[in-house]
Amino acid sequence: MTAADYFRARLAHETDASDVYAAQKAGDAFVLVDVRGDEAWQQGRISGAIHMPYREIASRAPQEIPQDTRVVVYCWSPGCNAGVKGALQFAQLGYDVKEMLGGYEYWVREGQPTANDEGPLPRVFDPQVMVVRARAASESREHSVPGTA
After folding, report:
1. Which of the residues 58, 80, 85, 87 has the least number of beta carbons within 10 Å of its own beta carbon?
2. Along the 149 residues of the chain, how does pLDDT read in single tens digits?
3. How far apart, in whole angstroms, are the C-alpha atoms of residue 86 and residue 66?
C-alpha cells in the first residue's frame, strides 16, 4: 500500500467536526449519530444528532435508519474509541459510515451548536484548535446562557 492509498482509505472512513458542520449547513443528506451513553447525551450533544449508544446499533439501526442512509458517528473525544465501535457496528450492517474525528469535544471547542435537554448550550471558540475571529467571539457572548459568560 502506498502512502496515497493509506490516506485515501482514511478519508473514505473519517471526517472531522468542521466538515460535518459544513455538511449540515449545506443540507447534505446524512444522519449524525451520538454513540455515547445516556448520561453523556443528556449532558450535551451535537445539535441535529440522534442518540444510539454503540451497544444498541445492531438491534436498533435496521429499524430506525434506512440502509441507504449515510451515517456519521461520534463519541466523546480523541481519547474515546466508542466512535470506532459504533462505526464498526454500522459497517457490519452494510451502512456507508464515517467516524467524526475529535468527537463531541472538538465539536464544542470549535464553537459548533450543541444542546441538552433544556435547550441550546453556549457556544465556545477555543483558540487552541481553531482561528478565533472577533465576530465569532462576540457571537459566542451574544448566545451565551446568562451567568455562564
Report:
1. 58
2. 999 999 999 999 999 999 999 999 999 999 999 999 999 999 999 999 999 999 999 999 999 999 999 999 999 999 999 999 999 999 999 999 999 999 999 999 999 999 999 999 999 899 998 898 876 555 554 444 333 33
3. 16
| Cβ-proximal residues to 75 (8 Å cutoff; 6+ apart), any chain | 34, 35, 36, 54, 81, 82, 83, 86, 103, 104
Strand order through the sheet with 119-120: 45-46, 114-116, 119-120
Task: Give residue 70's identity as a one-letter amino acid code.
Answer: R
Contact criterion met (CB below 8 Å) for 124 and 111 = yes
| Radius of gyration from C-alpha coordinates of the chain | 16
Strands ordered across the beta sheet of 50-51: 14-16, 96-101, 70-74, 31-34, 50-51
Three-state SS at 14:
strand
Residues whose CB is less than 8 angstroms from the CB of residue 129 and which lie 6 or more positions away in sequence, other chains included: 106, 109, 110
Q: Is 111 left (phi over 0), alpha (psi -120 to 50) or beta?
A: left
